[in-house]
Amino acid sequence: MATASVSFKSREDHRKQIELEEARKAGLAPAELDEDGKVINPHIPRYMSSAPWYLNAERPSLKHQRKWKSDRNYTKSWYDRGAIVFKADKYRKAACENCGAMTHDANSCMDRPRKVGAKWTNKHIAPDEKIETFELDYDGKRDRWNGYDASTYALVIERYEARDDARNKYLKEQQLKKLEKNDQNSEEDEDDLRVDEVKVDESKQMEFAKVEKRVRTTGGGSTGTVRNLRIREDTAKYLVNLDVNSAHYDPKTRSMREDPLPDADPREKFYLGDNQYRNSGQALEFKKSNLHAWEAFDNGQDVHMQAAPSQAELLYKNFKVMKDKLKSQTKDTILEKINDPYP
């Protein structure tokens, strides 16, 4: 964008201008003043402080960056909803034929169409509405909350509180009925009946073991059950031992390979480290099957653990059977040679 400072400057003048700007930024020279005598921050870029050429500004200024098209005629007020100006007793000429109001005609009437309009019955004449016109600015026209009355939300709160009170009252009545019927039962039955009303309400509304959420699919979306990875009451890995020199915790992979409490009683520990789970149980069997698939593929067999897992698992089972059979045959031949005195 072309600015007001388009006049030609020699090399010497340009160098002096740069030195002056550096001195102003360092605080060695006084800051520049605009047309109104206000100080211009020397760290503001030149393309912001220099006005466009069509404003005919003789010196740098920030007036073009401010809101200079402000109109005092604009207002932020809103329509007075439901306001009544006047209510007539008889039908008036040029009024609405349906309801009898003077502020609109029959085509614009928002009341229910009457079988016989107010023009012919002279009964139930609707009041005249209060008509207002506002000149709103750009923001006022696009403000979706303009005219919203926050006090109306109190009605929503009252409705929900009344619903909760009615529910609690109903639960108490049901518990009293059960207690009256089972007065002759044992104390254990009475304790079971005296269930906290809050727990009864929560058990009806939610299930603690699972969390329901929307799952996006190509068919438009369907509900799916997503379980939590960890119960909230369980202690996290990195909180088992707060010692800095204890087992290392990797926050990126959320893994802790070593045992955080190696000297503690094994019967009291609930977490032994990720390596303990990787080297025991089905994880170890999975490693062996993977290793067997790799070795079989290197030996020329067409087997792949990820492409055909069922085939690889079946080959591994057959391999274990053949291996055990070969071990037993070898053992039998060795025993025969030992037991036979005359080979």
Automatic annotation (TrEMBL):
Subunit structure: Associated with the spliceosome.
GO cellular component, one term: spliceosomal complex
Keyword Hydrolase part of the UniProt annotation: no
BP GO annotations: mRNA splicing, via spliceosome
Cell location: Nucleus
Protein family: Belongs to the SLU7 family.
Pfam entry (one): Slu7
Keyword Nucleus among record annotations: yes
Domain Pre-mRNA-splicing factor SLU7 as annotated: residue spans: 136-337
Source organism (scientific name): Lupinus angustifolius (Narrow-leaved blue lupine)
The protein, known as: Pre-mRNA-splicing factor SLU7
Annotated function: Involved in pre-mRNA splicing.
Keywords, alphabetical: mRNA processing, mRNA splicing, Nucleus, Spliceosome
Domain of life (superkingdom): Eukaryota
GO molecular function: pre-mRNA 3'-splice site binding
